[in-house]
Amino acid sequence: MKIMRVLLISANTEQLQMPVLPVGLACVAAATEKAGHEVRVLNLMTRDNPRELLENSILEFHPEAIGISVRNIDDQCMLSPRFLLGPVRDIVTSCRNLSSASIILGGAGYSIYPRSSLAWLGADMGIEGEGESAFPMLLDRLSRKEDLSEIPNLILPNSRNRKEILKNIDDFSLPLPTGLLSFPTEFGNQQIWLPFQTRRGCPMECSYCSTATIEGRILRKRSTEAVVRSISLFVEAGFSKFFFVDNTFNFPPSYAKELCEKLIARKLGIQWRSILYPWKLDEELVDKMARAGCVDVSFGFESGSREILRSMNKRFQLEEVRVISRMLKKYNIGRMGFLLLGGPGETPETVSESLEFADSLELETMKVTEGIRIYPYTSLAKTALAEGIVAPDNDLLHPTFYLAKGLEGRLRETVSAWLKKRPNWQS
């Protein structure tokens, strides 16, 4: 195998809610380095002059392959949507002007639109979904100038290889704090909550969600011992705040409890956040979460209307949300609730139900979204197509939203009135 010089670029410079470190890219970097290649990583989020840094890195390093991670396509805001791929295209253009290296796309945002974003950005090829196995394999084939047709998840301008998920994610290294990214603990006067993924995939099939497109529907878990061992290394390096970005931290409950138990036993003194699905969450798990250092959760119940919850394919009941919310408060775990308003079947009456339900929970923070971003391969996309909201040839790369008829203007007026009286609510 020929050793290649590989430049990996985290193109994200947006802070939609908080600065996010490119830990996914770090996993790919670790796998690439393990395969024997010489790797350099650029995190453009942490740089004052990213274009100058990019130019200097290419001219000094002379990469033979350039990987670009694309995290965000847009800001998901229906009222004034921002399309975020323009700066990424500038990066691709700069790389093209400065180097003859192959330009390979990847990342969560890219994986939702692998064909259309490849064409729009003008790169050579892309890796759809997980890249820890596929990317080193691609480099090996490129170095040998061999056929690329057997590489899983590879997207070329005129072809698409078979899609494959990693059956055992424990086979691939977690990023290390002393490794390729030189993680800062603060950025722009904001504390960094280090993103950490213990599980991939989601079987819940919510009508609007893109997670299954990115990670698949099969839930795959890292060993809890490997997770805690990796977190311990970050603690030794000075980190104390973590964000478990698993889409459903509490599934399966047995795994979540085991992880919490091991964190408690290690006495690491950390604080962490997580994302909860408000279903099958008992007081034993909440207690363990609190004792393990959980201080905040994202609490995505999305609606306070039973009818709308059925439309979204949610599996929980409103009373379950109430019970779980009370348990979290009892154990002093902060709750950030989420409402998604305007989807199929939404009416002024169901909007009022949702707002009143959310208000009754007395959460520390509430995030209200008006209109729902339509992602490909979702039930919502099929509904939008059937209703003529999107055309059959619309690839949905540019921000497209579903808003139920009859709510135009009225929804904004209603939500604005609620926000004025509730300083802890935001849109």
How far apart are the first and last residues' alpha carbons, in Å? Answer: 52 Å
Kindly provide the radius of gyration, computed on alpha-carbon positions and rounded to a whole number of angstroms: 22 Å
| Order of strands, widest sheet | 2-1-3-4-5-6-7
Largest sheet: 7 strands, mixed
The helix content is 25-40%
Poorly predicted ranges: none
**Beta-strand percentage range:** 15-25%
Class computed from helices, strands and strand pairing: alpha/beta
Report the strand count. 20
Compute the average pLDDT: 93
Question: How are the elements arranged and paired?
Answer:
Layout: E1 5-10, H1 23-34, E2 38-43, H2 50-61, E3 65-69, H3 86-98, E4 102-106, H4 108-112, H5 114-121, E5 125-127, H6 134-144, E6 154-156, E7 159-160, E8 186-187, E9 190-191, E10 194-196, E11 199-200, H7 211-215, E12 220-221, H8 224-236, E13 241-244, H9 253-266, E14 271-276, H10 283-292, E15 294-302, H11 306-311, H12 318-330, E16 334-341, H13 348-361, E17 365-370, E18 372-373, H14 379-386, E19 401-402, H15 410-420, E20 425-426
Parallel strand pairs: 1-2, 1-3, 3-4, 4-5, 10-13, 13-14, 14-15, 15-16, 16-17, 17-20
Antiparallel strand pairs: 5-6, 6-7, 8-9, 11-12, 18-19
Helix pairs in contact: 2-3, 8-9, 9-10
